[in-house]
Every structure is written in C-alpha cells, then in structure tokens.
Amino acid sequence: MCPEIMTKVFLWTLLLVLTGIFLNYYTDTPVPKEIPEKWKVRIIDASMRTYSHIINLLVKLGITTHFSFLDRKLSDWFLLTQMTGYPWGLSLTADPYLRINDTVLDYVRVKVYEPLSTIRFDRRPALVYIHGGGWSLLSVDSYDPLMRKLARDSGVVIFSVDYRLSPQYPYPEPLNDCLTVVNYVISHARELHIDPARIAVGGDSAGGNMAASVSLRIKHKISLQLLLVPALQSLNFNTTSFIENTKYFSQSINNPQSVVFMTNYIGISPKYVQEFLINNHTSPALKSSHFAHNTDQRRWLPSKYVRSLHLRSNIGLKIDYGNEDLSRIIESTLIDPYFAPLMADDDMLRDLPETYIVTCAYDIIRDDGIMFSERLKAVGTPYTLVHYHDGFHHALMFPHGPLKLDVAERILKDLVRKLRKL
Ligand SMILES: *[C@@H]1O[C@H](CO)[C@@H](O)[C@H](O)[C@H]1NC(C)=O
Ligand SMILES: *[C@@H]1O[C@H](CO)[C@@H](O)[C@H](O)[C@H]1NC(C)=O
Ligand SMILES: *[C@@H]1O[C@H](CO)[C@@H](O)[C@H](O)[C@H]1NC(C)=O
C-alpha cells in the first residue's frame, strides 16, 4: 500500500483508539497489585475493549460478522498499534539484522526470519512458531514484531506459520497446516540449511496448544517445544485460574466469553458457550472418567500457584450433572490428545521432547500449563516451568514499543536464553 493511504489509515485508527481509551478509561479496570505498570496495562485493556466494542457494533449494524476478514484485520491493527505505535507494525521497515521472506512451504504460507549473523551457516537451528489468537484471530503479520525480536536476539531461523483459522477451518485443519510446515522443515532441512537435530516448535495460547500437539505427533524429530501460556484442555472451565482471574481484565483478555474460541476450534455453534462455562458440556460419565482425572486440580495443581485460600482448600468439582446430548457430540474431540494435549496418557507424554513452559499468574488458562508440567514431572519427561507472578495472558506481546512491559522483557529474555542453547 502507498504511504499516503497508510498514513490515513493510521490517523483514523489512532483517532478510534484515542476515543476508545477516553470512553473506557473512566471505568478504571482493577489491575492486580503485583503488576507495577498500571497505566500501561490499563491502556492495553482499554484498547482491547475498544476493539471488541467496535467489532460488536459493526456486527450489529450488519456490516460484518465475527471472525471475518475485516474482524481479523481490525484485531491485527489494534494489536500492532499497541505493540509498535503503528497499525502496520514494522512492515514498512526493513530489518538490518534479518532476511525476511514470505513464502509457501508445501501448501502453507509461512513468514521466514533468517538472522544475517548465521545466514552463511549450513546447519542453523530453527523454530517453527505458531501464533496465538484463539485459532480464530491474529496472524503472522500481528506477530511480526515479536518474531523479529526473537529471531534477532536468538540467532535462530524462525518459520512463522500462517495457518488457516477457525471457525471457517475447525480442528484439525489449523493443526494440519502446522504439521505440514514442521514436516517440510524436517524433510527439507538440508536445502534450507537447517540442522535437523536442532528443530524446535513453539507457540503461545492457541499456538501453544498446537505446538504441543505437533510434539505429541512427531516427538522424536523435535528437540525442544516452547509452550507459552498454552491452552491445553477443554474439559474443565471451572479451574482455579478461571475463577481467580475473571475478576481482572474481564472485558478483554480474561473475558469468559473467549470460550467461544474453543467452540470455534471444535467446530460447533457459539450458542454452547454458556454451557461450557458451567461445565455443562460434559456428561456425568465423562466427568468421572480417567480423562477427567487428567484435569483434576486436586492432583495436578500445586497449591502454591493458587492465590485464594478459599480455593486452595476447595478445588473439587461437581460431577453429577451435564448435558448428555451436547457431551455426546463433542466427547471424541474433547478427549482427543491432539486437540487437548492434557488428554494424552502417560505413555504419550513419556518421550516428548524437552519442554519449556511459560505461565502467567493473572491468566484464566494459567492452570493448563501448570497441570501439564506436573504431568510431565510425574512421567519423568524433562521440562522447565517458568511462572511469572506479574504476568497476564498476552503480556509477552509487549517486550518493546510504547507499552513496553518489564514482565514481557523478562519472558523474552528467558526465552532467548533457552533458544540460544538449541
Ligand atoms: C529467501 O529469499 C531469498 C532471495 O531473496 C532466497 O535466496 C532464499 O532462499 C529465501 N529463503 C527461504 C527460506 O525461502
Ligand atoms: C467450581 O469450583 C468451585 C471452587 O473450586 C467449587 O466450589 C464449585 O463447586 C465448582 N463448581 C462446579 C459446578 O463444579
Ligand atoms: C445443562 O444441561 C441440562 C441437561 O441437559 C439442561 O437441562 C440445562 O438447561 C443445561 N444448562 C444450561 C445453562 O444450558
């Protein structure tokens, strides 16, 4: 696009963002006291709410629908503006330390980041990165600033996967796209000048879910998996992290309605969201099955992660209710370990690649990553769990830019240190 149009788009977006912040700011979101950069976090929260108000309005006016092309562009622009100050992010800026290619591997579009520092090497380490956004939003474009930083700082070649999104493409399509790219990189390692013994897969949120599935599928060919604030199960939405954290950022990143991302990925109507939220989507039989044991918080959630004393002593679930009809339709998906990696049995978890898990205290899906690490510990698979007491779900998007957060800098620095050893 020509710079003139970009400038217009930018000014309009800026105007919308500023108006949004103005309208939202007075509601003064509660920010947990462990998070020091209160005003920055409030702006992040306010702009996310602004985005959802705008998209909800556009949907009401009949101009677009949720998870349309326009919705996805809007969410990209909002996130990029928060991360870099510009809705187009860094796309107009060449990076002096990287060669960046948009390419197609097999049939999947991929953005490749090659650090110039290692560009002449014949056996370079590689990371296949799967972006977040609930399988439904965001893209390789909104992740571009983060991928640049990760590639630049770590010296690792990054393949950022532009997988197809739900609800248009439900499970397993997005996962298949990611698998295709990982398999391509493995089988073409020589031409790509990649060391086949140093290939990592990673992702955040929904991307962390698919990174874990890829690792379960082709464990021996991966040497490290990075699961950043991953979503790993959908049997239980009454986890302590859900209960504790919906009081913060409840209209943005911790909005309980984001369970719609799960219904999108499963491929069922969003009308079931309310049933998911009270765990009505699983039958009594499923609630007492061994699959439910895999998400049993009395077994898999060390109480040191739970802030509320009341919840610490009371994390049992009711198991004598549930919508049998709904459960019957979705059960085979809910218990599929490639859909929900916490459903993997001990044997599947036993010889997984080394696993690096990041969790954030103020995240409604915090417990998924913690429970997964406890399960790995139980079977003796090497793992590292790094828990950030002052983090929230998408804090890692802000290691730079106008809303730079200290916790994001630490998450990225720790991640880079891990990748340098790849
Ligand atoms: C990136 O593009 C360059 C040419 O601009 C090409 O030589 C190189 O092979 C490409 N790399 C990948 C991984 O596609
Ligand atoms: C949800 O969790 C709370 C606290 O752990 C518990 O008291 C409550 O019974 C649970 N609700 C259901 C429906 O399982
Ligand atoms: C939960 O399931 C029961 C049994 O199918 C049903 O009668 C009830 O309406 C459901 N609750 C909600 C909130 O949908």
TrEMBL record:
<dbReference type="GO" id="GO:0052689">
    <property type="term" value="F:carboxylic ester hydrolase activity"/>
</dbReference>
<dbReference type="Pfam" id="PF07859">
    <property type="entry name" value="Abhydrolase_3"/>
</dbReference>
<feature type="active site">
    <location>
        <position position="363"/>
    </location>
</feature>
<feature type="domain" description="Alpha/beta hydrolase fold-3">
    <location>
        <begin position="331"/>
        <end position="395"/>
    </location>
</feature>
<comment type="similarity">
    <text>Belongs to the 'GDXG' lipolytic enzyme family.</text>
</comment>
<protein>
    <recommendedName>
        <fullName>Alpha/beta hydrolase fold-3 domain-containing protein</fullName>
    </recommendedName>
</protein>
<keyword id="KW-0378">Hydrolase</keyword>
<feature type="transmembrane region" description="Helical">
    <location>
        <begin position="9"/>
        <end position="26"/>
    </location>
</feature>
<keyword id="KW-1133">Transmembrane helix</keyword>
<dbReference type="InterPro" id="IPR017157">
    <property type="entry name" value="Arylacetamide_deacetylase"/>
</dbReference>
<feature type="active site">
    <location>
        <position position="205"/>
    </location>
</feature>
<dbReference type="InterPro" id="IPR013094">
    <property type="entry name" value="AB_hydrolase_3"/>
</dbReference>
<feature type="active site">
    <location>
        <position position="393"/>
    </location>
</feature>
<dbReference type="GO" id="GO:0016020">
    <property type="term" value="C:membrane"/>
</dbReference>
<dbReference type="InterPro" id="IPR050300">
    <property type="entry name" value="GDXG_lipolytic_enzyme"/>
</dbReference>
<keyword id="KW-0472">Membrane</keyword>
<keyword id="KW-0812">Transmembrane</keyword>
<feature type="domain" description="Alpha/beta hydrolase fold-3">
    <location>
        <begin position="127"/>
        <end position="266"/>
    </location>
</feature>
<dbReference type="InterPro" id="IPR029058">
    <property type="entry name" value="AB_hydrolase_fold"/>
</dbReference>
